[in-house]
């Protein structure tokens, strides 16, 4: 959609009793700075009056054709016929309002500068807010990464604890098998010594094989 032009802004402004920068920007859907530039051009062209202390520009209304006003002023009044009261002296037209002085122009310029400063501050605050949003997103991403690291470390720790527990149980079982089957631990005059030796030679290599796999794995 094309950006509304200065002529569009003038047409929109003519329908309002008064106008300010925010109303023009919202009405046309344009940036605040562009609306301010349009209003300043209108003020220089005399389409709107000088801005007041509250940030409003009065809208100047076009008056009737000059030729009609001059003809009405040039038509002489008909003197009364016959005796009668003396006609009253026509009232003098009120003097035209004097244009604002130098002090008024200075006040207007100061107010415009304040509005421009406020616009710059607003833009800077918007940029700061965007930077804060980006920083928050980064912190959230870092927090999620640390959470994943913590969960992985906890899983490793639990795995190591389970491995140590299994290792301890295996060592206990190994010692029991050694006491019960090793020939050196057999009591004197043991009748089943040959059977113990046969069982030990059959089982103990398997026990050592399991131990080696546990250390490698």
Question: How is this structure best described in words?
Answer:
By secondary structure, the chain is mainly alpha-helical. Among the domains are: about 1-60, Arc Repressor Mutant, subunit A (Orthogonal Bundle); about 155-215. Helices cover about 65% and strands about 0% of the residues. The protein has 6 helices and 2 strands. It has helices at about 5-15, 20-30, 30-45, 65-75, 100-180, 195-215, and strands at about 20, 55-60. A two-stranded antiparallel ribbon has the order 1-2. Helix 2 (about 20-30) packs across helix 3 and helix 5 (about 100-180) runs antiparallel to helix 6. It is rod-shaped, with a radius of gyration of 50 Å.
Task: Spell out the key features of this protein.
217 residues, mainly alpha, Arc Repressor Mutant, subunit A, 2 strands, 66% helix
Task: Describe the structure in brief.
With 217 residues, the chain is mainly alpha-helical.
Give the helix/strand layout.
Elements (H helix, E strand, L loop, with lengths): L5 H9 L3 E2 L1 H8 L3 H14 L11 E2 L7 H9 L27 H80 L11 H24 L1
Antiparallel strand pairs: 1-2
Helix pairs in contact: 2-3, 5-6
> C-alpha Rg, in Å?
50 Å
Would you tell me the structural class of the helices and strands? mainly alpha
Q: Count of DSSP E strands?
A: 2
How much strand content do the residues show?
under 5%
Segments where pLDDT lies below 50 for 5+ residues? 66-74, 76-80
DSSP helix count? 6
Elements, N to C (H/E):
HEHHEHHH
């Amino acid at each position: 959609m094309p950006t509304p032009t200065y002529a569009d802004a003038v047409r929109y402004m003519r329908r309002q009793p008064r106008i300010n920068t925010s109303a023009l920007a919202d009405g046309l859907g344009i940036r605040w700075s562009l609306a301010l530039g349009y209003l300043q051009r209108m003020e220089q062209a005399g389409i709107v009056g000088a801005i007041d202390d509250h940030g409003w520009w009065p809208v100047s209304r076009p008056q009737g054709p000059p030729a009609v006003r001059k003809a009405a002023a040039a038509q002489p009044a008909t003197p009364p016929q016959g005796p009668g009261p003396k006609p009253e002296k026509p009232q003098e037209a009120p003097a035209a309002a004097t244009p604002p002085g130098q002090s008024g122009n200075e006040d207007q310029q100061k107010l415009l500068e304040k509005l421009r400063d406020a616009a710059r501050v607003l833009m800077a605050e918007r940029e700061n807010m965007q930077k804060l949003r980006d920083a928050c997103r980064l912190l959230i991403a870092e927090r999620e990464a640390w959470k994943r690291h913590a969960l992985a470390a906890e899983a490793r720790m639990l795995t190591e604890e389970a491995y140590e527990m299994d290792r301890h149980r295996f060592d206990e079982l190994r010692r029991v098998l050694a006491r019960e089957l090793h020939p050196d631990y057999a009591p004197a005059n043991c009748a089943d010594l040959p059977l113990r030796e046969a069982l030990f030679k059959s089982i103990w290599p398997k026990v050592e094989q399991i131990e080696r796999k546990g250390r490698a794995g």
